[in-house]
Write a sequence for this structure.
């Protein structure tokens, strides 16, 4: 398995470009199942999770072709299988959002349940309850959700919590249902909004996107379209932290400032300067960092997907920071590795108390999930000596060409093949 070797201590300087959003691209790729026409998706990041999503579609009978470095053509002229198998869903939970579009298009779906996950239990009860409310008969058998619905019918669906995946799954089931569906307490994440824009471009009738109530008027059929995936706000936030933790000066091109409000606010509280620059954000860090308190929340709150990166940063603030993770119950695995590098972090339930500034020293560390691996890379950029991050395949799930991007702004980071 590949490793990343980092020699820290270099202030990162320059410009860096973002890739397309992973979490927007994945459901958008699944949405191609909803039409027999070709769909062309641009700004698709070349990531392991994207490959998994495309592999899944190919197994369903979808024709998939890369027509440019980041441009994907998908055509679900005919669906030849209704099954999302365990071996794919277990490697990428987002495969579970194939349920809604498959059922809507063909009236049948057999999708493996995802099982455990490194960051929390992550059940799929809300997805299932929502799709059941649209009239599907659902059985859980042999680890699979088996769903049948000759005709889905619009319904009112209340989500107990504003789940991103459940909102996407139900939205994709509802676009071809008979009548109107209301999703109440819906997720408002920009990635959900991007999927809704893609569906609307395919002919779906969707209102209220970006609010807590999404209204979907079912239509008979959807048609092909072209869609460009939004830039990755989590990659943007990760690179902003890279500037902050190295005392650097980075301009992140195309960073979606309007989607990064909570992140900009928290970074400014630490003393980092952030300004809009062209179409992006410039992050300059040249003063000692201050501690902050932060809570992860559904959008527009502080994203859980940037909590691990912020924890690495706060080890360098002078004073006591408090992080509360409210979305996932086990998302502090990176803290245990940061401790091995010299961080001072005490965890109790959903709260982590980070005391700084700590002198981080390079160590062999192990990534446990995607964002944890980014946190360790960031700590490595601030550490002395050599940091060796193993299990880099986690990073490949969600950061495109990260080592090359970081090298281009001065980082001493190398990927060592197994
Ligand atoms: N939840 C339930 N029941 C459900 C669905 C969710 O209890 O049926 C709970 C989850 O266990 C969790 C909370 O609700 O505690 C939020 O989960 P959500 O469904 O919103 O998350 P998701 O759709 O599984 C997406 C992203 C995650 C991101 C979360 C939260 C994708 C492919 N994944 O997951 O991204 O952390 O939303 O914003 O969009 C990542 O990129 O590293 C990542 C984990």
């Amino acid at each position: 398995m590949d490793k990343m070797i980092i020699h820290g201590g270099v202030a990162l300087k320059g410009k860096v470009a973002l890739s397309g959003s992973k979490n927007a691209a994945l459901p958008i790729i699944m949405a191609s199942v909803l039409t027999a026409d070709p769909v062309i998706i641009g700004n698709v990041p070349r990531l392991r999770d994207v490959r998994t999503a495309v592999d899944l579609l190919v197994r369903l009978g979808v024709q998939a072709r890369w027509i440019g470095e980041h441009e994907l053509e998908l055509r679900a002229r005919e669906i030849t299988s209704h099954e999302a198998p365990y071996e794919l869903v277990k490697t990428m939970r987002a495969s579970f959002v194939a349920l809604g579009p498959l059922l809507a298009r063909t009236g049948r779906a057999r999708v493996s349940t995802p099982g455990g996950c490194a960051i929390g239990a992550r059940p799929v009860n809300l997805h299932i309850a929502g799709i059941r409310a649209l009239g599907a008969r659902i059985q859980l058998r042999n680890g699979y959700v088996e769903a049948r619905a000759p005709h889905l019918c619009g319904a009112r669906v209340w989500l107990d919590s504003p789940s991103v995946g459940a909102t996407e799954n139900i939205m994709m089931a509802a676009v071809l249902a008979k009548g109107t569906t209301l999703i109440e307490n819906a997720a408002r994440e920009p990635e959900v909004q991007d999927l809704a824009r893609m569906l609307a471009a395919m002919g779906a009738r969707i209102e209220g996107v970006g609010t807590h109530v999404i209204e979907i008027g079912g239509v008979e059929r959807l048609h092909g379209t072209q869609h460009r995936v939004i830039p990755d706000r989590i990659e943007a936030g990760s690179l902003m932290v890279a500037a902050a933790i190295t005392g650097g000066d980075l301009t992140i091109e195309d960073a979606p400032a309007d989607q990064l409000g909570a992140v900009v606010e928290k970074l400014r509280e630490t003393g980092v300067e952030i300004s809009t620059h062209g179409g992006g954000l410039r992050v300059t860090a040249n003063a000692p960092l201050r501690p902050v308190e932060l809570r992860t929340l559904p959008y527009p709150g502080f994203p859980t997907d940037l909590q691990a990166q912020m924890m690495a940063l706060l080890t360098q603030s002078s004073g006591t920071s408090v992080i509360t993770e409210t979305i996932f119950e086990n998302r502090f695995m990176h803290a245990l590795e940061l401790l091995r590098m010299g961080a001072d972090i005490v965890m109790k339930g959903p709260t982590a108390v980070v005391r700084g500034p700590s002198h981080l020293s390079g160590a062999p560390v192990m990534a446990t999930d995607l964002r944890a691996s980014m946190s360790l890379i960031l700590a490595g950029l601030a550490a002395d000596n050599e940091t060796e991050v193993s299990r880099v395949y986690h990073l490949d799930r969600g950061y495109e060409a990260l080592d090359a991007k970081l090298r281009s702004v001065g980082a001493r980071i190398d990927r060592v093949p197994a």
